[in-house]
Structure formats: C-alpha cells, structure tokens
Automatic annotation (TrEMBL):
It comes from the Eukaryota. It comes from Piromyces finnis. This is Coth-domain-containing protein. Residues 519-556, 563-599 form the CBM10 domain. It holds the Pfam family CotH. The keyword Nucleotidyltransferase does not apply. GO terms for molecular function: hydrolase activity.
Length: 602
C-alpha cells in the first residue's frame, strides 16, 4: 500500500512545470501548489455550530453583522494527497459579507503549523466580479512588476461535505507575512499600520486616527505613524520625502493603481485598503490589499468629485490620464506632475514586464482554463449562497466567460459593473502607448514623443444579456479590435525600477551565490539543483532527488524540511517513535492502524 502510493506520487512531476511568469517571485509552497491546480479544502465542524454560523451570515447591511468564529478541522486535498489541519474558521470580509456568498478567514492553529508555508488566508466568493479573475490577475501584475502583493490562488470549499463552490484564496498581510517578504527578523512587528477606513490620505491630519496598528498587542503604539504623517505633510521636495519613504516604490504602486483602474486604494476617493509599514531601516513603504474590484470594475464618475467628468453618467475610463485620475494629492504634484520623467519610466517598466496585451491576454487564458470547470460547476449549482439576504449579482458561467473577454457587464439590481478584462487591458494599453510613447515591442520611445491626449466621452446603451444583467455597448466608432497575443513575447528580466530598496539591499548583501553552490551538492555529480519547492522523490547517500523539466535534480540541503518525510506522499506524521519499517523515504510506523511517517525529531 505504501509503495503504490509512492508510485502515484510520480504524478507530482507536474509540480515542477516551468512557471516562467513567476521566475522572479518568492511565494509560499501553498501558492506554488495552487499555480497549476485547484485543491479542495474540506472543513468539518459540529452541525449546530455550522447552523449558527449560517444564521450569523444572514446579513444585508455590514454594520448590523456580528462576527462568528470557531475551531474546526480541515482536510487539504490535492493530487490525491490528503492532509489534516486544525483551523480557526471565521466569517470574513467586509463587503463580501453583504453578498449572497460570504467569505471566510482561516488560520492554521498550532505554533509553527502552516498550510504549506501560509498560516492565515482568506476565502472569497467574489460575487460581484463576473470574471472571478480580478484579484488573481492584478496581484500578478504587481508581483511581475517587482512589487510586493498578497498572493492569490483558488480552492473548492466543502463544509460538512456540503459543496460550497470555488473561492479565491488570498494571503493576509500580518506579522508573519512581513517577516517573510521583507526579511524583517524582529520577533514583534510593531510598525505595520492598516488603513481600512475611508479617506486615509497622507495630506489629511485625521488619517492619524483612521489607520490602526495591525498588531493587536500594540494597538496603542501609534507615535511612529503620527510622526510619519507629520513628516509627509511637511515635505516640500522629492528629497524630503526620500528621507522618510521609499519614493520610487510608492510611485510604482501609484502607476499600478492607475494602470489597473482601481478606485479602491490610495488613488481612489475612498483612499483605503492599504498598509503603511516602517521597515527596520526606518523607511516607510506602502502595501495595498484587496483587489477584487480592480481592472475597471465598479468605477463610477461620481468617485471623482471636482473632475470635469464627475457628473457624466458613463465615460471611457481607459482614456483618463493619470493627472485626471488622481484626486489632487500634494505628494503626487511633487513626485509626478512637476516632472514625470521617473513616473513615465515606472509606467514603461510595468508595461514591458506585464501590462501589455501579449503577456496578459495569454495569462488570462491560462488562468481561465485552470478555473473554468470549477466555475462552471459552482455557477450551475449556485454554490455557497448561504446568505439569503445578501446581494446577488446573478453572474453565471456565460458572464464569467464574456467578462474575461471583451464584454462590459452591468448588473441592474446593484449597479455592479465592469470592463471585460481583455477589453480594459487593450483599451488602457492603447491609451498608455499614445500618452507616454510606447512602441510595438512595449518599450518606451526615446526621446519621448508629445503626449497624445484622447477624448473619453462616448455614447452607449445597456442591452440585456441575462436576468438583471446587461452588456454596455458602445457606439460603433468606439469599438476596439480584438487582439491576437503573441505568446512568445516576454520580459522576464528582474525588475529594478521602483522595487523595494530595503529588500534589494538586503539581498545584495547576502553572499547568496556562494551559499547556494555549497548547498547545491548535486552540481558535483553533474546534476542541476532543484527549487526548494520541488518534491523529493528518491533519497540516496548524496541527498534527496527531485525531478524538474523531466530530469533529475538535487534538492539543496538548506531547503526547509517538513516535520516527517512521508507527509508529502500523503501520510500523517506518527504520534510515536516506534519504527516498524524503513525505506528510501525514511522510517515508517503505525498509528491508529494506519501507516504513518516517523518524525525527523525521533
Ligand atoms: C449533520 O448534518 C448532516 C446533513 O444535514 C447529516 O447527514 C449528519 O448526520 C449530521 N451529523 C450529526 C452528527 O448530527
Ligand atoms: C479613446 O482613445 C482611443 C485611442 O486609444 C480612441 O480611438 C477612442 O476613440 C477614445 N475613446 C473615446 C470614447 O473617445
Ligand atoms: C527548469 O526550467 C526552468 C525554466 O526554464 C528553470 O528556471 C529551472 O532552473 C530548470 N530547472 C532545472 C533543474 O534545470
């Protein structure tokens, strides 16, 4: 039995499939796993507790909702591997709780226990995103641009064996996330501030009271943040700002926000959904989160008070310049409008790396084919719709498909709406290319040509394409040509512009190269090293072997190890140290009548 399971683990070859889109990015193993699969999370809890949770989920107004949280068991299943965890299971999300398919937050219990490297994560139904891909694609745009972002994947959820459908899984920015991403080794992260409340602008003194310390043990520790707000408000020049914050990194995030047309972060009227974090070197950095309405979704002219277009019903947001898009932030006058040379380069870098139709349209097809069968099943069964009072966009499988292409979707009941993903990308790319001067190879043209300013008003009608769901159709003269992407276009060079300086300096300091060759024992034997996330398939006296690109590679000695060697083959770790048999994987014992893998610590 043991042996046949080990053979079936050969299907894990797929785990090492080339992931070119991600070559420069560090993720936890959980998100590596979800790169090419949609695993199952099966949560079990007492029926009474679940009934109470469903009861608490009946919400049509967030301010009337109450929290609900309980301990539960969770099986995590992928590729026939089944793992068990004890979790904290909680109704989650803000707006998400007002929708028919509410979200959940999960925390893996037990000190040091994680789900393949991730301890806290969120499951969201994203009912108002017809494409179900906004969160995924936007965070990938960030990461591929060299900007930190939460990580995103998909899972199927079951609660007490009831099928709840597909959920978007995302990482949560917490102390552990900060330690991992920034290499901040301090035990307590005390200088991470979350700005959830509307209007957390840097030029507004009340922001001091709006943002909160993200570490519950240090809620009163606000002085550093207050000082930061004062310093930003006093700053007159770029060099004043450079003393307190990572300026180019911040600017690249601002470029991103405009590029993906989001109104739900710093640039938007609501000015929320981000963190400010003071790094060990004293310099502040910006970290946005929650990307379900990016990419031209639910964007309204009324969110732009004081702009000439604020009273027009519908405009072409893809043709609105950065200057007209941002809401008169003094910091952006200093950093962009007075001289936009650096900003233009940052935009150019994002375009070359990722925000071009060749890269993104290809990527959308890949992500869509991964989730397609799961979305279909979810939509057919109206899965997970436990909040009977909640808002229901009524987006079905067909709308999912249309909205990931070129169809602009509008919901009659709630006015949810959104550009088709490919439509937004092609339209906005065209604008950026005209305004900043970008050639067919997605590179900035030097010297810079005169910016082309384009009109943004158009005529449209809304045509019914489903129950309460309409398509926004533009006049013929504003239609765009569908784009045939060239899948071989790639700019995989590591981003250097606007990447986090602190992290970069730390990485440059570490003599990583040398360390790696020492740990990479298989080089001597003329085999390449595996990535740490490659699964060991065979062990001999030299070390553990895995397979990448269909050939053997050696797993470096310094890769993090699991508690017991059999865990990755689907076995539980033994709760005792009685060795019954031994093979190339390690020692085996028996627990509860089942084979189990003896812990390394025995
Ligand atoms: C819980 O509910 C399910 C379905 O409603 C039922 O099949 C199961 O027997 C119940 N379990 C217990 C312990 O009552
Ligand atoms: C937006 O700009 C494009 C060029 O990129 C132009 O063809 C189009 O007509 C403009 N849209 C509107 C609504 O004016
Ligand atoms: C496998 O291919 C990927 C992508 O080309 C490369 O990054 C990786 O180093 C290769 N692995 C090995 C062990 O050669």
């Amino acid at each position: 039995m043991k042996f046949s399971n080990i053979l079936s683990s050969l299907s894990l070859f797929a785990l090492s499939a080339s992931a070119a889109f991600w070559d420069n990015i560090e993720r936890t193993e959980l998100f590596e796993i979800m790169e090419t699969r949609v695993p199952e999370m099966r949560v079990t809890l007492g029926n009474d507790t679940w009934n109470e949770m469903v009861e608490k989920a009946q919400v049509n107004d967030l301010s009337k909702s109450s929290p609900f949280e309980t301990q539960a068991q969770m099986k995590f299943i992928y590729d026939g591997v089944e793992e068990e965890y004890i979790i904290n299971f909680k109704l989650g999300g803000r707006y998400s709780r007002e929708t028919i398919k509410p979200g959940y937050n999960i925390k893996i219990k037990g000190s040091g226990e994680t789900l393949h490297g991730t301890k806290n994560f969120r499951l969201r139904g994203d009912n108002r995103d017809a494409s179900l891909m906004r969160e995924k694609i936007t965070t990938e745009i960030l990461q591929k641009s060299g900007l930190l972002a939460v990580e995103v994947g998909y899972t199927e959820l079951y609660v007490n064996d009831q099928y709840m459908g597909i959920y978007v899984v995302s990482d949560a920015v917490k102390g552990k996330w900060i330690r991992r991403k920034f290499g901040d080794e301090r035990e307590d992260i005390k200088t991470l501030y979350q700005c959830k409340e509307d209007g957390s602008r840097l030029d507004d003194p009340t922001t001091k009271d709006k943002c909160v310390n993200a570490n519950e043990d240090f809620l009163d520790y606000m002085e550093p943040f207050h000082k930061f707000i004062d310093q930003v408000q006093a700053a007159k020049t770029r060099s004043d700002l450079e003393k307190i914050m990572d300026v180019d990194n911040f600017l690249k995030y601002m470029a991103f926000e405009w590029i993906v047309g989001t109104w739900d972060h710093y640039l938007g009227n609501f000015c929320h959904n981000f963190y400010w974090y003071q790094q060990p070197n004293g310099i502040w950095v910006y970290i946005p989160y929650d990307h379900d309405v990016d990419m031209g979704s639910d964007i309204w002219t009324a969110f732009f008070p004081d702009k000439p277009f604020s009273s027009i019903d519908e405009i072409e947001f893809a043709n609105v310049s950065f200057k007209d898009f941002e809401l008169n932030h003094p910091i952006l006058k200093i950093l962009v409008h007075d001289d936009d040379t650096v900003f233009r380069q940052l935009v150019g870098d994002i375009v070359s790396k990722v925000f071009n139709p060749d890269t993104l349209l290809t990527r959308i097809n890949t992500v869509r084919s991964l989730i397609d069968p799961y979305v279909k099943k979810d939509k057919e069964l109206n899965a997970g719709m436990i909040n009977k009072l909640g808002k229901n966009s009524r987006y079905n499988y067909e709308h999912f498909y249309l909205n990931s292409e070129y169809t602009y979707i509008f919901n009659d009941d709630y006015g949810f709406k959104g550009y088709g993903l490919k439509d937004w990308i092609v339209r906005h790319y065209n604008f950026i290319a005209n305004y900043y001067g970008i050639d067919k190879n997605h590179k900035l043209i030097e010297p810079r040509p005169e910016p082309v300013v384009l009109p943004y008003t158009f005529t449209y009608e809304r045509v019914l394409i489903g129950e309460k769901v309409r398509e926004v159709v533009r006049g013929q003269q504003y239609a765009i040509q569908q784009y045939s992407p060239n899948p071989s276009y790639a700019d995989d060079s590591a981003p250097v512009l606007g990447v986090n300086k602190f992290i970069k300096e730390q990485k440059d300091k570490k003599p990583q190269q040398i360390e790696q060759t020492e740990q990479c024992w298989s080089k001597k034997l003329n085999y390449p090293c595996c990535k740490c996330t490659t699964y060991p398939i065979y062990k001999d006296n030299d070390g553990a072997w895995g397979i990448e690109n269909n050939s053997w590679c050696g797993i470096p000695n310094n890769c993090p190890k699991s508690e017991c060697p059999g865990k990755i083959y689907g076995y539980n770790c033994c709760d005792n140290c009685n060795v019954i048999s031994t093979d190339q994987i390690g020692n085996w014992g028996i627990s509860n009548g089942q084979w189990c893998s003896i812990k390394e610590s025995c």
